[in-house]
């Protein structure tokens, strides 16, 4: 079997497609394109295709990643071309690499995600400054186990507002995370269009993209 990491785009045309629908679209496209995806064994086999992070409905992404496992050894350029020739409008493969050694899963490596929101607000810059002066910011999260208070301030790695663009770099690891809507709620920004710009892993004390990470290991 042969594994690949692929950077892809989920554009404006499919902003409101669900995570499951995206998975189904990729599976159907791979069949049309003749890309030999490997399947799990058992009564209900499923394609060996996984995402770095699930993408929420309503978010456009220009820097998301997936891992795909094939039964044949194809060149990455061939995979990208064949898929892009058949993918629905708004979904596009941008770049990729074949894995040449055993590495952790994408989901285990992801540490942070960059988001941008276009919004006009005369007092937003001052509001951000006030928020970042706090020693902690606790929010309430509900789960099957009950209500939990979480300090999200350490998880906000960057929060800036310039030229009507709000930029956020947020922790999105498997052990700790903060969602864009949780930060936007602090800023009293309701129902904006959120764009996901890039996904990052950590290498030493630096944040790098997953494909850059592969070059460094």
From TrEMBL:
Organism domain of life: Bacteria
Q: Which InterPro entries match?
A: DUF2344 (IPR018768)
DUF2344 domain location: 3-180
**Listed name of the protein:** Radical SAM-linked protein
